Amino acid sequence: MIRPIIVANWKMNKNTQEAISFFKEFCTDPTVSSGQVSCIVCPATTLLHTAASYADTPNLSIGGQNLNEKEKGAFTGEISGTMLRDAGCKFVLVGHSERRHLYRESSDLVAKKAFAAAHANLIPIVCVGETLVDRQGNKTFQVIRTQLNALFNEAPFLASFIVAYEPVWAIGTGQVATPEQAQEVHAFIRQLLVERLGEKGRLISLLYGGSVTPENAKSLLTQPDIEGALVGGASLQAASFLQIIHEGARLC
Ligand code: PEP
Question: What's the 135 CA to ligand 1 centre distance in angstroms?
Fold first, then answer.
């Protein structure tokens, strides 16, 4: 297996003291600096500078949770890719289901954000996934295809990107996709990437997200097309996030 990528999405959680406690525990774990796993932590914007002060830990990178598609200007409350880069980020989440559903972000906007990220020298982690209604209506592949099609128009301009499959019904619900369900969609995404991007499509890392825990991480990460995980709730405590990292490291 290639080196797994394990991403923490802290969402709107933690103050500075809590972030420092996390990093103090996390960064001293020998597995983190061992190089077996690539670790990315995406904290809230107010914590980026604190997080970036730990980014000299080998194999730890910092990511933003969202960015504006514009480079700068009169967009009160927004943050640009260059600002994230300036704050020490190397990655940024785009199209997280909470952004798509709560803030009505369309696939076209998500694609623009991915382009803006690349323009700012950030690697976008593009999230896609179906709702429960989509899955029950046998529309999973159709939804994923539509979400990715918008991105393919920008893909020639993206030096590098990551795709995270996050079924909406599995995010924060404790209802994880079975390894077989996740693998099936990952294989479909891989096929789409190769169809649209040729050999480059094989090099795009595919992550699974949705109620990943230390208990289920191994069964997901051992699937042939799952190359890492995007973790919400279980990334908030260093101990549980480290257990997931350890599971990833054992597979190398
Ligand atoms: C997420 O926020 O991307 C996520 C997958 O959350 P959770 O792990 O809590 O389901």
Answer: 18
Give residue-wise pLDDT tens across range 52-107.
Answer: 999 999 999 999 999 999 999 999 999 999 999 999 999 999 999 999 999 999 99
CA–CA dist 145, 244 (Å, integer): 29
Atom of ligand 1 nearest to the CA of 11: 2
Using DSSP's 3-state secondary structure scheme, residue 17 falls into helix
Domain ranges within the chain, ordered by starting residue = 5-250
> Is the Cβ atom of 9 under 6 angstroms away from ligand 1?
yes
- Please give the model's pTM, rounded to 2 decimal places: 0.97
Cα end-to-end distance, the chain, whole Å: 6
Number of neighbouring beta carbons within 10 Å of residue 124: 30
Fold exhibited by the domain 5-250: TIM Barrel (3.20.20)
For 121, phi and psi rounded to 5 degrees? 70, 35
pLDDT, one tens digit per residue, over 22-36 is 999 999 999 999 999
